[in-house]
Write a sequence for this structure.
């Protein structure tokens, strides 16, 4: 099965973003999932869409969580793969 990618929308200097980024690898261990980090700071469209919600973790168009890592939601997503 080819690897799938989660997208973490983030900002530079955002401690919540850093926290989520640091927590994710332990939950993705043993899966084919990887993390793509997208900084929204210099993209007005992404800034408008995610500016007040970062960090936002998505799988394609499906939002898994925002602000804090929702471990149950992430594990539910992984179990459905």
């Amino acid at each position: 099965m080819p690897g799938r990618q989660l997208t973490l929308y983030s900002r530079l200097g955002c401690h919540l973003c850093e926290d989520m980024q640091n927590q994710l690898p332990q939950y993705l261990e043993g899966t084919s999932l990887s993390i793509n980090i997208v900084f929204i700071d210099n993209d007005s469209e992404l800034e408008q869409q995610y500016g007040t919600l970062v960090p936002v973790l998505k799988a394609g168009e499906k939002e898994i969580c925002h602000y804090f890592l929702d471990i149950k939601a992430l594990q539910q997503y992984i179990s459905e793969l």
Summary: The helical segments are 15-28, 44-50, 71-79. DSSP finds three helices and four strands in the chain.
